[in-house]
Structure prediction request, 919 residues.
Amino acid sequence: MIDGGERQCRAVRLSVSLVAAFALSGCVSVNIDKSLASTTESLAAFSSAELILKRTKEDKEHANAIVEAALNDTLDQSQAVQVALANSANFQALLASSWARSAQAAQSGRIANPVLSLEDITTGPERELTQVLTIGLLDIIRLPARQKAAKSRVEFAQLQQSADVVQHITEVRQAWVRAISMQQRFIVSQQLFESAEASAELALLMEEAGNFNRLDRARQQSFYIDAATQLSAASHSALAAREALIRVLGLNEEQSARLSLPTELPSVPDEPLSVENVSLVPLNDRLDVQMASAALNAASRAQGLGNVFSFTDIEIGVVSEQIREDGDRESGTGVELEIVLPLFDFGPKRDAMNAITLALTNTLEATYLDAASTLRESYSAYRTAHATAVFFEEEIVPLQEIIVEENTWQYNGMIIGVFELLADSRRQIAGLISAVDAHEQFWLADAAIQASIIGRPTSINVGGAAAGTAGGNEEH
Amino acid sequence: MSSRRDFLKNISIAGGAVATSSVSTFAMAALPELNMQEGPDTQISPDPSEGRHYHPVVTPNGWTLPFRMNNNIKEFHLVAEPVVREMAPGFEANLWGYNGQSPGPTIEVVEGDQVRIYVTNKLPEHTSIHWHGQRLPNGMDGVTGLNQPGIPPGKTFVYEFVARRPGTFMYHPHADEMVQMAMGMMGSWVTHPKQHEHSLIDHVDRDFCVLLNAFDINPGARTPKIMTMVDFNLWGWNSRIFPGIDSFNVRKNDKVRMRFGNLTMTNHPIHLHGHEFVVTGTDGGPTLKTTRTPEVTVDVAIGQMRQFEFLADEEGDWAFHCHKSHHTMNAMGHDVPTLIGVDHTGMTAKIRKLLPDYMVMGERGMADMTEMEMPLPDNTTPMMTGDGPFGSVEMGGMFSMVKVRKDQPAGDYSDPGWYEHPPGTVAFEYTGELPDPTRFSAG
Prediction:
């Protein structure tokens, strides 16, 4: 590739041009604080959370204060995001890695260090001392171009960082949704279990009194066993979802114990995001498009360099030689020019460069196309989930309430018995689980569409249809 | 308007039933006046001012259809139509009936009368009337397809025949019969004897006419389920259920006749407390006096009529009901488990967590139900109910009372209120000592 650091040079003495080159190479650098601020700003529409990379004691205290304040209260979704950003070691690792990537990218804009080689050869009476200081001539000639390429790479790293942050925030949001919905399912399963338990207990009493035969009693008890199994599964799922949230939040044991979540997911908004809301981010500003574009930029700049580089490689060395023989001393200085003849690799190298650029050009085009398509799909998933959740809130839950009420009246009128009443209550309670499902789907879709709008589509299933997976994992 | 040709054509098709014009004001002008009934109150008919004289019957919660004499022909006008029937206070049913109510009005004629009945169909489907038990020309028998074409919606047909024999009859559709009867289309018909002194038909002071009918209306709903075969949940007398059935109020020592026709899908053993009666007539006519033995219960089988008479010589409020105990209940579940002896008060809290309004019922029996005020589905009469002077009567369905009072004026059918028992004649709680009984010792 184009990494100047791999080449070997031999030279002696620093020259003025070296000093100049050193000065020039200082132009591309990375300031992580600026980088984080820039990411925060570019994601303002997506999340108002603050990005903190904890390096100093003050950073840590600041982060701790955020976490403490959030844990003192019921944790809402935006607080969950803020806690994760401030507290999660995984997230800190992610930011630090991003910093490293940026720094490495910046490094590529600098020229390779000069090489000093010393020779001391004794041939019989003759001793030859040689000092050669070598520097890649092309390195210096190409410096401005290299710096441009490095800048592209830094830009890319910056975008990658934003994308990673979006991804992480989306994961936090969805983990928060699941932790609550699983807890809701658990509560509903508990009610189911209690209803089945009441039936089973009553059935036992009925059998003891001689009013039920064994078959009647056994039937009622079998519902109870089903409900008990469901309850333990729901209990585990609730715990698992909570632990998943604890992990993305990066809470320790003491903090986990204090984590308090809302008992149910928020109602769905009356007005879902409109098509206009969803299309607010212009295609060219989307993260995925920008990343594809930056990758192509970097590659084409590198290709510009590579063409020259592939044609030949020139190294210049300053040589100082002393020959001592029998007390005599001869010395001389000169310049050594080393040229690599591109006899064998000229064609393939150029081909590789062209191929990379071609691939990235097509990737950019594909990203454009996919972006629009996945946005449409995640928007449909979002609207479908919204409509379903609203339908549950406005139609199905009230219907279930009517059924429960009317059934109680039917029971009062001796039209149905207590077992039928309880069995029907179980059917209605089971219906509540579907309502929880619908809410969960909406809030997962909501998190997904936010990420999709900004250009980091994530996958979510709504009604079994995969949405927003196509552009999800580009790595350039 | 139908032309003379249509008229003849219809005669040839229908045999006897005559098609007239559709229901327009103009066409209706020629028909007997339309008499309608709005409510479920018992209407007492005056003695007839035209035609042969007779003593009118009383149809509890019903009425007798007025007639007009037209060239010596007794003319009636029945309109088959959807009606709203109050089956008990607070419970209304969407039924089909005649002239505003279900059952239709009782038709009273005298043996030998030439009777012409105009039947206007305001139902959404065709109908017909079968004059159950009557001697008449075959073409007047009312079986759609067999004896006549159905009366199309909006059309009026005429039935005409001579009331040949005295007795108690019924009328009901014989077109889509199951559905139309399940919806409440039926009525009573009484043919009084021509001679005032009939060897088998005695003069009575009070003459009551009841149609037994059954409906299946889901608690909270209003319209009967028309496909129900046997599992009816409402057992009515004249499309009323207890406590909606008027009591049979008589004067002490009145001779009382009951005419019970059964248009349900099961039999009903009708039982009177405190008296013995004799069966004086069936659908076939008066019974021979030699066959009349004292009874306290008479089984009125499906499609049957039983006419029985007694001397109301014991004062009091005497229960009068179908002796099938589930027929003296209103709507109830037929699969409600027995909870007697199952103490589950401890579980109430658990069940209330799921169903906050749940109340324990039935662990001692069902009488709890009458003691608790609990919300029921709308438009539903409780399964067992009825306030009496000593508490809840705990009845429903085919239950009423014969109230015998020495001071009930002749011809007055109004409710005299609760019976005032002479002192010492009401069962009472024993509160004295219980001495050890002397028991026979085998040893």
Notes: Residues 4-192 of chain B form a domain with the Immunoglobulin-like fold (CATH 2.60.40.420). The radius of gyration of chain B is 25 Å. The CA atoms of residues 91 and 381 of chain B lie 6 Å apart.
